[in-house]
Amino acid sequence: MKHDSGSLSNVIKDIEKDIIKSKKEMFNELDKQIKEEKNQLKQELKKEYNKRVREGKIRITEEISYISEKNELDNKRKLLNLKRELFDNFMELIYNELIEFRKDRKYSILLKKQINYFKKKFKSITVWCNEKDINLLRKIDKKINVKSDNEIIIGIIIEDKNKSQKVDLTLDRLLESKKKYFSENLFKRLSK
User: CATH says 105-191 is which class?
Assistant: First the structure.
């Protein structure tokens, strides 16, 4: 059989065109798939990135909050320690003033008034005091019964003859009983 060279060449050209067309279609299809996968991958990466950024922000916010609360707690603790130290110094100053008050003439006048008042009320009394005050009390009134109690820092405790009534007039115990009041009011005044 005789082949027409023109028709064979046309067939070959048609086949080549079909092959090229198929290649272009395959290339376009592959290019389309690559673009779709690329877009999908971009979206997934963007979602993952946004998720990690949100998680990072949350973690950083929590850490900042924790550090802030910790610093606030540390500052409150430091302030409380400072207040305690100031209060302790204040109380020590008052105790020292009480000890110095023992040397003041006003102290003996105070003791004399207390003793005279309770002598009238109880008739016969026993006066308890710090050992350092025994001589002073005997100078005030030689007739009273004076006993030593070294738990008393300054001041006196007066007891009636029957030992049924005892009146604590010690300045150190009075000060102890007012500690809470001093504590509350000292810092109110300092904060104004």
Answer: alpha beta
